[in-house]
Amino acid sequence: MTLRLVVRSLASRPVRSAVLSCGFGFGIGVMAALLGVGQVILEQARAVAVEGAGDVAIGGAAGAIGDARFLISGVLSLPPLAGRGAAA
What domain range includes position 17? Predict the structure, then answer.
C-alpha cells in the first residue's frame, strides 16, 4: 500500500520527481567527491616524504614584519624550540 502511494505521488508530478532525483544524485556525487578529497589529504598528511616539513609565515597586525629573520631566529633559539628548526 505504501509503495502504491509513493508511485502514485511520483507519477502525478513528474517534474518535481525529476528535480528531486537530480538533487539526490547531485548530493550523493558531492559527498563522494568530498570523501575522496578528504582521503587524499589524509594520505598526503601521513606521507613520510613530508614528515616534519613545514613553513611558518609570520606577519604582524599591520602587515609584513621587516626583520622577520631576526625574529624567527630569536624564537627558534628559545628552549622549547631549540634544535627543532632553522631560520632561512
Answer: 2-76
Is 26 a domain residue? yes
Phi and psi torsions of 63, nearest 5°? 125, -145
pLDDT digits (tens, 9 = 90+) for 45-67: 787 776 666 666 666 677 767 77
| 86 within some domain | no
pTM: 0.46
DSSP 2-34: HHHHHHHHHHH-HHHHHHHHHHHHHHHHHHHHH
What's the chain's length in residues?
A: 88
Question: How confident is the model over 5-48, as pLDDT tens digits?
Answer: 988 988 999 999 999 999 999 999 999 999 999 988 888 878 77
Characterize 47-71 residue by residue with b for buried, 16 or more Cβ atoms within 10 angstroms of its Cβ, and e for exposed: eeeeeeeeeeeeeeeeeeeeebeee
